[in-house]
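S1.2 Input.
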Amino acid sequence: MKSETFQSVCSPNFYRIFDKYGKRITAIAIYTGNNKRQPDTFTYDFYGTKIIYQFNTFSILQLSEQALAESDNPFVLVVLASQYQIKTKKNFEKRYGFKKKLIALAAEKQYDRYKIAALLRFIHFIVTLPENFEAKIKVDFVKLLTNDETHMELTKRETMLADIVHEAIYGEIPKDRDKKIEEATKAQVMAEKVLITQRLLKLGTLTTDQIAIAADIPVSVVNTVRQEMEKE
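S1.3 Output.
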C-alpha cells in the first residue's frame, strides 16, 4: 500500500473504532519493509478545515534477532519471520535455514497447541520458498520432531509437537491422515470385491454361499449386489 493511501486510511479507521467502542485508544503502524520513509502523520487541509492525525510507528527491523529469539512473547516469532523474509530477499538457501530455525524456536516455546499451530501457519505463509525447498522443509521438520532417523521413543510433548507441525503444514495430524488412508484402502478393497461378485453373479453357475466365499464378503452383501443388478 502506498504511504499516502495508508496514512489516509489510518485516520477514519481510528475514528470508526473510537465511535463503536467509546474507549480511549492508541494507534500504531507496524512497518514490515525496509523503506526508510515511515511516516507517522496524516494531514487533511481543505478550505480552512484542517485535521492532523499523528500515530505511533514501529519497524520490525528495529529489534535485534537475539533479543527476539530470547523473548517468550509469541509475537516475536511473527516479527522474526518478517525480518527473515526481508533480509534474505532471493537467497532461498539462507531463507530455508531461517525458516527451519523459526519452526524450531516455535517448537521450543512452552505455548499451547493451538498457539503453536497458528504461529507455524503464519511462518509457513510469510517465509515463502520455491517448491523444491518447501518440499524439503516439510520432510525435515516432520523428521525433526518425530525422530524418524534415530527411532527414539517420543515423549508426550514431542509427539504433540510433531502433530502440530504436521497439522500446520498439511492441515491434518498423522493419525487423521492414516485413518483417511485406511478408510480409502478399505473402500477400494470393497469395490474390488463387489466387482468380483458382479462377475460371478453374471456367470450364474455358483450359489450365493459359494460367491460369498470366493469374493470374501458376507452373504448379505452378495444379495444386495444381486438386487442392484436386477434393478439395472
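S1.4 Remarks. The chain is about 65% helix and 10% strand.
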